[in-house]
Amino acid sequence: INELIQKRQLLEAFASIKLMEDETISERDSEKYSDNPQEFVRKSKDVDLLYNSMANAIQSIVEGTLEDPTLEHTMLTSMVTLIAREEAAHPNTDNAARPGSDLLGRPRKWRQQWREAINESARKRVLKTPMASREESTSWLDLHLHFLQEHLREDLLKIKSSVKKCYPEEYQVCDTYVEAFHNAIASHLQELSQGPLDSGELYTLLYWVANTYHSEHFLGHPELKPEVKTENLSLLLTPADWDKLKNDYIASAKGNFKTYFGNILKLEVKKWEKKVHSEEEENLYHASLSLDIQTIFGQHVKVSRNISRSLETKMLELCMAELLEFIPRFEQEFMVWSTAQDSPIFVPHLVAYINSFHDLVSGLETAFQVNTEQLQEILAALTRNFTNIFLTKLKTKAQPLLKKVLTKKWILATERPVSLALAVSEFSEHLQHMREPLGQDLLHEVHKYVVKEYVTQVIKPRWKMNKNTRQQVSRKMSLEAEIIHNTLLDQGSDANWLLPAIDHIANIIGEKKKDKIKAYVKKLCQDYPDIR
Q1: What SS3 class is residue 100?
Q2: Domain residue ranges of the chain, discontinuous segments joined by +
Q3: Where are the alpha helices (DSSP H) in 208-342?
Q4: CA gap 268, 261 in Å, rounded
Q5: Is the pTM of this model over 0.70?
Q6: CA 530 to chain centre
Q7: For domain 242-386, which architecture applies?
Q8: Would you say 446 and 457 are in contact if contact means Cβ atoms under 8 Å apart?
Q9: Distance (Å, rounded) from C-alpha 176 to C-alpha 83?
Q10: Dihedrals φ, ψ of 513, to 5°?
Q11: What does each of the 532 residues of the chain score in pLDDT, given as a tens digit?
């Protein structure tokens, strides 16, 4: 009988085993073994072992179905006939087996073992899929999943086109194999997800589960329809495992964001160190960091949307959180650098950053409909701080020149009085490249500061001057005021109300007639009531 089993002559082998089983049962019932129960146990065990060998043969045939390039239809149909004959020979019964009879006459449940063999075959097919190590290929997981879907799709095509024909409809062969592969893949992915995966690998796994698995590239392939159905399959990953995978991806992305933003900061610091001037676009200074940040947002939010809306929301929240953390760090670096040295690119970069952060807010609102209230608060504080350091540096530059006004050295100097205007212009000329209304407001502040400080300087008590000196001072003040005003007006200042201030005082200084002096003073007080 064993030889028949080995030669896969299963129907003949089964007939012999059944005959042996019936004979043993008959002898048992005739109490032939009452004086020699060990002999009965031996014969019963022989029958059981032979049936087990048949079950092993069934398992071997099932596993060979997908392993062998050519399908032995005769072998499969013979196996199906064998299972049917066994079920007919051992009808399912709830009668308890007699003591000591073991499984004699009992159903062998080979159809159930057939299903278990399919499950085991599917498990082995999944585990057999090539998988390189991370050291061998950075795309190891992507390649592995690609091989998995390719190989198993070929298996399913073989089942649909060839294997299915060998079974009666009641076996639901395609459904059985699909479920077996589904469970095997689920178990395999669950194991993969427990390993140490980087951000890219986590995304690969998420995307494959969410998009590839049911797509036309795998189970939804047109050639598999309509036999391969996926509607009733359970989730490939449990909700807990799926959530863990998404959370791991978010946690991994968080580390990546710190690297991305760190690289943006390093790039800007290099520009400062190498004195690279800011870029200009449509007459506005522009920094690349706004586009860089929006690109980072866009890439991560888009790929997360490919997985699920909930992951997209989580990713957007992470993006915003990391951005809100980055901006104060960036501000601190810029403030430290600008305080440490007097660089000609300070103002252009300051203007560019204020412009770019404004663009960033509008860009994020437009592209992602995200709430930017907290971001705007942080950027408003940054703008105030940048404006303050701008004005501080301007004052530091202008104060020494303002203090020279009306000194003997200033009066005796014969060159055109342009030094103050030039010093102020180093700062103010860049404000025309700042987005409105900020640029105009800050330029107005500069204009007001220069005039106010100039006036403060000239009305301080001084040594007495003779008529010629007063007239010389008057002319020089008017000329310097004209140079300052023209410079700032050319740069876009609309503070026309400041124009007469220095001229009024220059007229007072240069006039010797008291009535005219009173008229000039009256005019000055009318135009600038707070000068009293």
Answers
A1: coil
A2: 2-92+102-114, 129-237, 242-386, 405-531
A3: 239-273, 289-305, 309-340
A4: 11
A5: yes
A6: 57
A7: Orthogonal Bundle (1.10)
A8: no
A9: 16
A10: -80, 130
A11: 778 878 778 899 999 988 988 888 887 777 777 777 787 778 888 888 999 999 999 999 998 898 887 777 888 999 999 999 999 998 876 544 454 455 788 898 999 999 999 999 999 999 999 999 888 999 999 999 999 999 999 999 999 999 999 999 999 999 999 999 999 999 999 999 988 999 999 999 999 999 999 999 999 999 998 988 888 899 999 999 999 999 999 999 999 999 999 999 999 999 999 999 999 989 999 999 999 999 999 999 999 999 999 999 999 999 999 999 999 999 999 999 999 888 999 999 999 999 999 999 999 999 999 999 999 999 999 999 999 999 999 999 999 999 999 988 999 898 999 999 999 999 999 999 999 999 999 999 999 999 999 999 988 877 788 889 889 999 999 999 999 999 999 999 998 898 888 888 888 888 888 888 888 888 888 877 776 5
- Phi/psi-derived region of residue 71, left when phi > 0, alpha when psi is between -120 and 50, beta in every other case: beta
- Maximal CA-CA distance, the chain: 155
Tokens of 182: 């589904």
